[in-house]
Design brief:
The protein is mostly helical and 238 residues long. It has helices spanning 2-44, 48-70, 105-133, 153-167, 174-181, 184-200, 205-237; strands spanning 74-79, 95-99.
């Protein structure tokens, strides 16, 4: 009974850390970004989104494409950036069309990662830009108000502009979510296998919580909080 209980606890932590939190966090980010983009489109014109989130859209689509190639999908068409309401674009600022073999388990599971890839691709891009322009922000332990004095003002301004533009590309479309769900059951099966291996190795669920759950929760909390502040600023000032 103790073995079953330990495995259940371990499986719960693994699924929450590697599936529940990423899905919930991505959904919350998508909702906030969709509201921001909708507000900007209403106030400043639909094509203003190309200006405010063009870079984010490019990284968004490249994230889909890169993950699709990683999982062996064939990309048959791709647009990194386009005006959303011109011709037959149907509101899409970009897209990646890819095909996969339904009987291929690896490719089918890849649909989950392909669907949510932009959240992590854009997060990675923001991390790189931060390391380049404002590395003091990574010192979370000693972060104080004087962090604004660590870099010239122009570097901070560029950081803000690039980060906002990238952040506004984090929205996952309905097509992204539909694609992700086609691979979610296979991904859950992989997590069950992972939890089983960890249980056999005698790994404690508390250790996994510290190594996986806490950092992942912190990661999404930071981005959700940041996007939330951006939503408040945009809705109040524009």
């Amino acid at each position: 009974m103790a073995i079953v209980t330990d495995f259940s606890q371990l499986l719960f932590v693994v699924i929450v850390a590697l599936l529940g939190i990423p899905v919930l966090g991505s959904a919350m980010i998508s909702v906030l970004v969709a509201h921001i983009n909708g507000h900007l489109g209403t106030k400043l014109g639909e094509n203003s989104l190309v200006i405010f989130s063009g870079l984010g859209t490019i990284v968004h689509e490249l994230s889909h494409a890169g993950m699709a190639l990683l999982f062996g999908h064939k990309i048959d068409d791709m647009r990194l950036l386009q005006r959303p309401f011109v011709g037959d674009h149907a509101g899409r600022m970009g897209y990646v069309s890819h095909v996969w073999t339904p009987g291929n388990i690896y490719q089918q599971m890849g649909n989950f990662f392909i669907g949510i890839a932009p959240v992590f691709g854009i997060s990675g891009a923001i991390a790189l830009i931060t390391e380049w322009l404002w590395p003091a922000l990574f010192d979370l332990v000693d972060l104080r108000w004087d962090v604004f004095l660590t870099e010239p003002w122009w570097r901070i301004v560029i950081w803000v502009l690039l980060t906002v533009n990238l952040g506004l590309g984090m929205h996952l479309s309905r097509a992204d979510w539909r694609g992700a769900w086609t691979g979610v059951m296979l991904y859950i099966s992989l997590l069950v296998i992972l939890a089983s291996i960890l249980a056999i190795m005698g790994v404690d669920y508390i250790l996994i919580s510290q190594m996986l759950l806490v950092p992942i929760v912190l990661f999404f909390s930071i981005f959700i909080g940041t996007i939330g502040v951006l939503w408040l600023i945009v809705t109040v000032l524009i």
